[in-house]
Specification:
Blueprint lengths: L2 H4 L4 E5 L4 H5 L12 H21 L7 E4 L3 H13 L8 E2 L16 H7 L1 H9 L12 H12 L6 E5 L1 H12 L16 E5 L2 E4 L1
Parallel strand pairs: 1-4, 2-3, 2-4
Antiparallel strand pairs: 1-5, 5-6
């Protein structure tokens, strides 16, 4: 059965706020980089908007499971979000499978640096960004497989805080995007995603 047919709805997805590595365009992946001031402001915005949005949906926070990546930038975002919603900042679940893609031995590099130092990685990513396994790391496909496994176990509507690649592959699984399209999907940090009744919208 397609994942979208069994996924509890509604689902709200928040990408973590900005970090200094996001700002610098560095391959962040598995590195545990904290939010910067802009990222904290983005998290506060999403919490304030979400609080009012749940009222518009006719829902309360108790209707949702709050679940988060274990990485510090996601956890900090979740805790700010919940605080802005008037909730206990620390009352949420963590699932290891929501961690970001691992870029392996190119983590910390910018694309211009990779073009000089690791041009073969740039070339192979461009040829097949979906299937390319980063050296000592993962591919988009590998992340999609673990997210599909995780989602297949979920029973309740959720508010998720995680990462850009995780967001892309989840949108691919739910909305039927072609694998070649998924790596280029937008992942804003100053909005959150609503998935409900088979369609998605940015809030």
């Amino acid at each position: 059965m397609p994942l979208a047919k069994i996924t509890p709805t509604p689902l709200l997805y928040v990408r973590h706020g900005q970090t200094d590595w996001n700002l610098e365009g560095r391959m962040q992946g598995g590195q545990d980089i904290p939010l910067n001031d802009t990222g904290r402001k983005q998290a506060r915005r999403n919490g304030m908007v979400m609080k009012d949005f749940l009222v518009d949906l006719g829902k309360t926070p108790d209707d949702f499971i709050f679940v988060c990546s274990p990485m510090i930038r996601a956890r900090e975002t979740m805790e700010i979000l919940r605080k802005e919603m008037g909730l206990d900042p620390n009352d949420y679940k963590v699932d290891e499978r929501l961690r970001e893609i691992t870029f392996g031995n190119v983590e910390g590099m910018t694309v211009p640096e990779m073009m000089v130092e690791r041009p073969e990685v740039i070339r192979m990513r461009r040829e097949d960004k979906w299937g390319y396994v980063h050296p000592e790391g993962e591919s988009y496909k590998m992340v999609s497989d673990r997210i599909a496994e995780w989602m297949s176990e979920q029973k309740d509507p959720m508010i998720i805080v995680a990462h850009g690649v995780v967001m892309r592959v989840l949108r691919g699984l739910l909305c039927g995007y072609a694998p070649a399209e998924i790596p280029d999907l937008d992942t804003p940090q100053d909005q959150f995603l609503l998935w409900r009744d088979g369609s998605e919208a940015w809030i």
